[in-house]
Structure prediction request, 1573 residues.
Amino acid sequence: MRCQSACAVLGFLNFTQGGLRSLLFYKMLEVLKRPVVVTTNINLNIVALTGVGLLSRLWHLSYPRAVVFDEVYYGQYISFYMNRVFFLDDSGPPFGHMLLALGGYLGGFDGNFLWNRIGAEYTSNVPVWALRLLPALAGALSVPMAYQIVVELRFSHCTAMGAALLLLIENALVTQSRLMLLESPLIFFNLLAVLSYLKFFNCQKHRPFSLPWWFWLMLTGVACACAVGIKYMGIFTYLLVLGVAAVHAWHLIGDQTLSNVLVLYHLLARAVALLVTPVTLYLLFFYIHLTLLCRSGPHDQIMSSAFQASLEGGLARITQGQPLEVAFGSQVTLRNIFGKPLPCWLHSHQNTYPIIYENGRGSSHQQQVTCYPFKDVNNWWVVKDPGRHQLVVSNPPRPVRHGDVVQLVHGMTTRFLNTHDVAAPLSSHAQEVSCYVDYNISVPAQNLWRLDIVNRQSDRDTWKTILSAVRFVHLNTSAVLKLSGAHLPDWGFRQLEVVGEKLSRGHHESMAWNVEEHRYGTSQEQRDRELELHAPTQVDVSRNLSFMARFSELQWRMLTLRGEDAEHKYSSTPLEWVTLDTSIAYWLHPRTSAQIHLVGNIVIWASASLATATYVLLFLWYLLRRRRDVHDLPEDVWLHWVLAGTLCTGGWALNYLPFFLMEKTLFLYHYLPALAFQLLLLPLVLQHVYDHLCRSRVQRHLFSTLVVAWYSVACHVSNKLRPLTYGDSSLTPGELLALRWRDSWDILIRKS
Amino acid sequence: MLCASGRLLAARTATSLPAPPRGRGPALRCPRRELHFPGNPDPPSWDCLAGRLTRASASPHRRVILRRGRMPPAVGRGLAGSELRLRRSRCGPRAAGRDVAIQAAARSPKRPAPGSWRFEVAGRRAMLALVTLLSFATRFHRLDQPRHICWDETHFGKMGSYYINRTFFFDVHPPLGKVSSVMLIGLAGYLSGYDGTFLFQKPGDKYEHHSYMGMRGFCAFLGSWLVPFAFLIVLDLSNSLPAALLTAALLTFDTGCLTLSQYILLDPILMFFIMAAMLSMVKYRSCANRPFSAPWWSWLSLTGISLACALGVKFVGLFIILQVGLNTIADLWHLFGDLSLSLVTVGKHLMARVLCLIILPLVLYMAIFAVHIMVLNKSGPGDGFFSSAFQARLSGNNLHNASIPEHLAYGSVITVKNLRMAIGYLHSHRHLYPEGIGARQQQVTTYLHKDYNNLWIIKKHNTNSDPLDPSFPVEFVRHGDIIRLEHKETSRNLHSHYHEAPLTRKHYQVTGYGTNGTGDSNDFWRIEVVNRKFGNRIKVLRSRIRLIHLVTGCVLGSSGKVLPKWGWEQLEVTCTPYLKQTLNSIWNVEDHINPKLPNISLDVLQPSFPEILLESHMVMIRGNNGLKPKDNDFTSKPWHWPINYQGLRFSGANDTDFRVYLLGNPVVWWLNLVSIALYLLLGSIIVVAMQRGAQLPTKVEGLTRVLLQGGGQVLLGWMLHYFPFFLMGRILYFHHYFPAMLFSSMLTGILWDTLLRLCAWGPASSSLARAVHAVGILSLLLGAAYSFYLFHPLAYGMVGPLAQDPRSPMAGLRWLESWEF
Prediction:
């Protein structure tokens, strides 16, 4: 108790200063009579915590002037932003990347740096300090925020100080905040969402629909959107807040002192703030992202032709001004829409299928048809009307419509696309697709294809460049032209296999193709046509995709892009996080053994886990006893205890347990958001034990002493690990070995 | 009697709403009914915004009154009492019908004379008999058609044969051991004179003279019980005969359920046990007012038994276990909160459930498994998937009753097996890695089957002399030694170097190198035993070893990825630079041949039963996870299922074939789909209204209780059997939806019956109300029957032109383009 009052005395000093207060009309006169007096409370605790928070995170921020660990990954995206080049990153939505890029923009970064390896020295044009500033600020501000959350949970100021100080000295959090990484902004917005919801909730009792009530409610939604926008992981906190808000809203519905209309207003306000706002903001992030990145870049290939055409340079340069409607006699390249395993174009070349495959099966020995992942003159096909002989476009052009029967003629070899009842080279259940060569052995040509526009509006739709997804259905066998996804062996130059799928079980994107490059053919002679095919297409009209179309495509690709399952030296499993059985070496000084190492304060981690377990056990104990009508805690204490537990333990569990189900490569830093919630819980449990479980004065004194001792140990450990956190001092191999408290920590020790 | 009535009341409250116990000032303490959550500890008072909303002090009273209104004590005290008395005898088989009848009478718009319950009971029994008969008739009609293997019959029929021949097999397909069911199929086949000689090679093969009707009949028999089970469940949940009839009709007339029940598949068996578990759970919960009575015990233990069997059939059985588990927890929670029960009584309840729902199923499950293990004691095609110790117990396996030298010595010929399940033996063959994939040297892979190419000779790294020369003394290999592994067939050394591995780009390639055992320093490996001290000998089979490449420091492992055609689809072997200990990089020595050493018997290796259990499950789970769909193939997605988007071809595709197509009856399925949406809408309206304190008339309140509790129960079942599939990475099929479909049909029955009663209740006079209700139910029944008449060729088979053709019997019925018939 003494401690609490001391904190309070220290905490609240009143200042009177000039400032602002909104005044109504008739009060204007009074203003003239009386001086403007505005009272502000400044909680010195918060000021002090912000100060030390900033100090710990910003101190020597631009050291080391070298690429540290994942900076190599995020850095390249910052450069893309600076150069406004389009990229696709499946690790998370763009808001986090944009935040980092904002730092670069403010620091005047020109994007010219090659992010190729960890440890590379930054050149002088890289504003390291500015780039690392935003994450560091987010990390620093999390400290006073933790304080406020605990206060809003109606625990004592002393406890609140405890929570903030734990966040302050936790080595892993410090390390992670001081670099160009996204975890500290994520934690910041997670905590902000919880804090503003609590503020809103505490307003609810006394002043619903007041200005602060609206402010905090909207801020909750905004913070949730930002958290989700930084990493998909933020969705867990969003769900937590939504869940708590839903339960509270349910109580509101049950409150029969409110009129129905008022309840409806309450629900609507929550729906707007917690559902509509986040969705809108999320879309806004993508809007800014797509507006910023308007130039074509290295990841274009993954996107559809239409998307590529909307970027400056790249495909847009080629496709601009192509005729829109494909006509009989058009020259086209056909791109597979599914594009997996590789984006590719329908292709053929002089070589034929081997007469006998390795496994003894035979082939038709006709010309190979494949799917080729590079642009090539052999990707050109001419759309021919079976009834005419000409390979040029008539005047006026006769557009091809859904349901028309066409022949596809390979531009360079003038052979017809054909399929027949011969097993395909690799997918033996499907038909082989070839360009027909007449060997005069009673294998007739079967080269008629019916055009089936998948995304047609009406049954008389015309075939449009880029926009139409079409299927080619073989007239004789009703097989569908399909990319099987298999790589042909050496005789097929490792290009992708194309087959006629006969047993088509429903539509799949690998059967759909779209025209990418297109021009009206004008030369009837083969020699002229070859020249024509070699020439680039050039005309000029631009085709714009709506934002929603671009957004949904980008989002879908981000979610479904499957990178190679990268094994990593420092990857770990969720179980190793709680016990801190793993660590990550972030950076090593090129000459000395100064190094940055992501490793947590082991005392804090252990006691936080212990506190979580204690909380759960105590909670269950109380709950069971209450069910038997034994009330150990007064009602309001119990409610606060439950709310605190739901937010902190729930936050921890939601941010931690889903990782057990994930199959991607995981690292220790994925645990940090969960840890932040756990650190909030720890002092709460301590205070609860002090208030309710220590019965006599002696016990309380003893407990306080123990807590102080424990905190000193935590500080000591934190200080011991400081060289690894800041990487500023070089330790001798002996000292480093002494720091290797667990065998699994890979602390780097230089030989000699 | 007094005590008993107290308990009765308690049990009653436990099943419905938790009312405050009597005699303890119930009204004022009034624990709030909602989920307790912080916040709103006091009712808010709105003085700041709108003064008029400041709450009246009378509110506690009001709440009590409302609560009463919901609990019907005022009017219903007497009624509730009588209900209780009747309920008490409800479990007793003799009185069951009577109570049900009276309850139903209380609900039905017009209360019949008290004596008519006899008539009601008779009617119900007659209906049950009729429904059962109809179900059996539809399932057994044309069961022998077609006379060839359909779809997955090839799988399960084959396994049935394995059982009859007692050959050990590994089945990737089932997750948790469909042991019991395949055993049942096997047994059925055995009893009906099937001799296990038919090969079950591929769909379409003719059965000829082999007797297959026993196995099909067995599946159809179990499948037929689904309908009466659903009937009884709905009857118990809703106390309404029309609802039960409607459910039974939906299921009887669903072509999908019918088709699935007619073939040698696991699904009818699985669904039988799922429904049996559900039925017995519902029954035992309706006995809750007479705990520890004989029917209570029997239903409880039946629940446990059905659960064990359901899980024994397929992984999907887990979902019904989850449902029963959730129900049990809720049940216990209510009992625990009932202060009139002593803690000892609550403890008894808990123990009874632990006994019947955990221990009994576990014992049963293990017993089934033990039988499986005992029956299959011959070596078969699945051996290689299992560990060395496991194989030692299969007769015919080379490890069975084998005796081999215990300690590894130089010169021994060995096979090296990866410790991760289903990876196999270290293997090499004369083929080289193709051009462009690392160095063009001899391939090293892992191979699941036993083969002479799995043999390696262990040699010292620095001498090439033959250690088997009798003049040399025996020298044992010790932990930490530098060794060389020479492939026996090709005399090349196990080798690694700084080239990237063919599939896992971050690892190094492993090859066979050198001629006649002479290679270079990249052939040297340090052999280490996990968790042992340096200098110890290495034990065959029992030592877990790692091979560390001396030059690069990487560890020999298998990535588990399948190599392309050039590697014969064997698994990739790599040398991983990440020194983490995973099972992929740990090996053991299996075969060991060294004439200079004495052999010891391997009986010590016999694994204990729990080990066998664990290992077979691990292998099955792994196998199941391995069933991944390929990128460029069309696969069935969970969202296709409820809308009946696409069926499965059971037999035949062309117009000359005998075609059977597994597809739900679209009328039934779409009705189910609409019902779920309608239920959610109606349910949420009612719940919100109740939370707002709306006072419902007694009759409506009874209906809403049925809707919320009975309907909620089956809705939970539907969700538990459907949504988890969205999370599954393995390849999915249409027939996975059928357990969920059963629940969804039950929901439809309950919903429409209640909805029609609600509609009829509103404005009309009682005779009109009954007419509306009767007409509604009847039209639904007839609709289902007529659609079955239209679609029955799907299930019973059709020949002739496809549906596009106007001459086809199915012409005009292809309502979705995606249906293929």
